[in-house]
Amino acid sequence: MGDAISACFAKYATFSGRATRSEFWYFQLFYILLIIAVSFIDPSEDGLLGNLVFLGFIIPLTAAGCRRMHDVGKSGWAQIIPFYNLYLLCQDSQGDNQYGARP
User: Which candidate, 22, 24, 49, 55, places its Cα nearest to that of 37?
Assistant: First the structure.
């Protein structure tokens, strides 16, 4: 789990390459748990701390999603299509494709 999270931070703004299912979903879980923790720390209505966390994570979350789409053989833009993106995010990788070797 820690390797998946550190891999996403190491590739902070890397939109090329591929990301495994576990790497993507563990990073999503880490982000959700962090947002929950921040909401307990800063329960104010403006949520300044939560907004800062969101701004800090928007690029790596998008990059990880793009790499995950590449892993299933789709363009990174497929992550903006509602519901279809969830289907693709849960798919297993298909081996080597135009985005690189299977991670």
Answer: 49
